[in-house]
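Run folding on both entries below.
>entry_1
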Amino acid sequence: MSHPAHARLETYLTPAEYLARERSAEAKSEYLDGDVVAMPGSSREHNLIVTNLVAELRQQLKGRPDEVYPSDLRIWIPENRKYTYPDVSVVRGAPSLQDRFHDTLLNPTVIFEVLSPGTESYDRGKKFEHYQSIPSLMEYVLVGQLEWRVEQYSRQRDGSWLLSETTGSTGGISLDSIDCRLAMAEIYDKVPVR
């Protein structure tokens, strides 16, 4: 498993053992088929972007059955036996949750990852590969932290993924699967330009 900025915590745990530990842990960790990996901390810029995304999405989804979640809601990917914490996730309609704890989402429609230098290659590669096996996932959005750049992957009818990119302070992205539009200026509000 390739997590550049992550520290491996355990040699092997079952999904049930991982969940039992994770629910009482002080720090979050991800799980991939028995391996438990600590999640790194995040920068001010990373947190500002996540806050901006959640705020904008919440405002646009207000009054609709759709829900937006920050990074504390875990996602289970059964095909890869993976638990992960995306930076932001959105579910269209009613959420499907794994168990009575209501802390693990099964049916995300849109997932956002804010790119960090230590995890960028993983978010672009293996993590996206794992996410693609989620049948409900329609859009995967990578948001640059070091530059104003958003890469949006949209699932096509044939199952392939179409990439569109937006850069700079003008324009924005359309999330067709949840009928939302995010302006670049809102995504990067108060984030220093580099």
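>entry_2
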Amino acid sequence: NYNVKYFLNQCLKSVEIACENIASEVFVVDNNSSDDSMAMVAREFPLVKRIENKENKGFSFANNQAIKASTGEYVLLLNPDTIVDIETFTKIVKFMDASPDAGGLGVKMVDGQGDFLPESKRAFPTPTVAFYKMFGLTLLFPKSKTFGAYHLGYLDEDKIAQVDVLSGAFMLLRKSTLDVTGLLDETYFMYGEDVDLSYRIIKAGYKNYYFPDTQIIHYKGESTKRTNIKYIIVFYKAMIIFARTHFSKGNAKTFTLLLNLAIYARACLALFAGIATKFLAVVNPKPGKADVEQRRIAVIGDKAEAGRIKDMLHSKNDNFDFIGLISPLKTIIDIKTEYIGKLDQLKEVIEIYNLNEIIFCSKDLSPQLIMDQMKHIKRSDIRYKIAPPNSSYIIGSKSIISFAK
């Protein structure tokens, strides 16, 4: 964890429920956050084991601290900006128990809008694969076995498959496999360590599996900004470390050259984009309040919880239209409430009332049900947010609204 207190809180609440039927231990390793993350963990999750670092030595170092202290048969590396489903842990453990050849496992990940994250399944970044990715051919031919290899776009996202690389955002590892491969390489500060460990798992004779029979929400990069040049340099330098460690001298040299070219190209694009943005801001100044699209909000949840969220929204005094509540049930029992529809009518309700913001109460809806609804609607103009139970905040893909006093 690094300064993502609200995401961490929501993640731990989902983990707590998913662990109910499994013998488990949960660690939070904090890399010197300044947002009172660990005070929140101590207060609201007293059973969680806390490791509080006084300096940030990176992702690999922090995860290794917890792995060394853990006693489980399996180890799951999990980003704090994720939400797991109620059945996620029972399903992945059952699969691993039945698959002795599996050294590691990743799951299907969707973002905060319900869109599939292609990094859920990846190939090793060989020079050829990396070239196609860096120069846009992967984007142009995502389903091609040749050009789309980076994200294995030719594999069905809803079918179990063997893959090369597992994502560090959700990386299930067999402890006995780690005894053979070793832990995360601490040469990597952030990014690349999952690629490196995935490679060593396969090299040791085990298999990595993509397991889409359960899915999680991954808000993706909330603690880092993936579009700035600093991120680009850190990411590509991690790939250079991987190449120099595992590729032949010739391939490593070629790969390093390609990556350095990509860094300079992306840096130039970022520079020009910054200049263009400033120019457009001068030519087209920001619209006034009257020109900004009015938020038209509905909350999905039972009367008590949805009503609590409604009251929180009104306490903020923001400019929005609260349209009504949507029942999480198939039938609306109390017709005297502010319900404007029910969950299985969500698509129609959005169109009838011209909604552009939906808030799910996770007290009344499972993560799986929330993801299913986002996938069913498939509207890019709808902003989805989640209100955790007993919380004073609401989380969206690119926003956190806190009502804490």
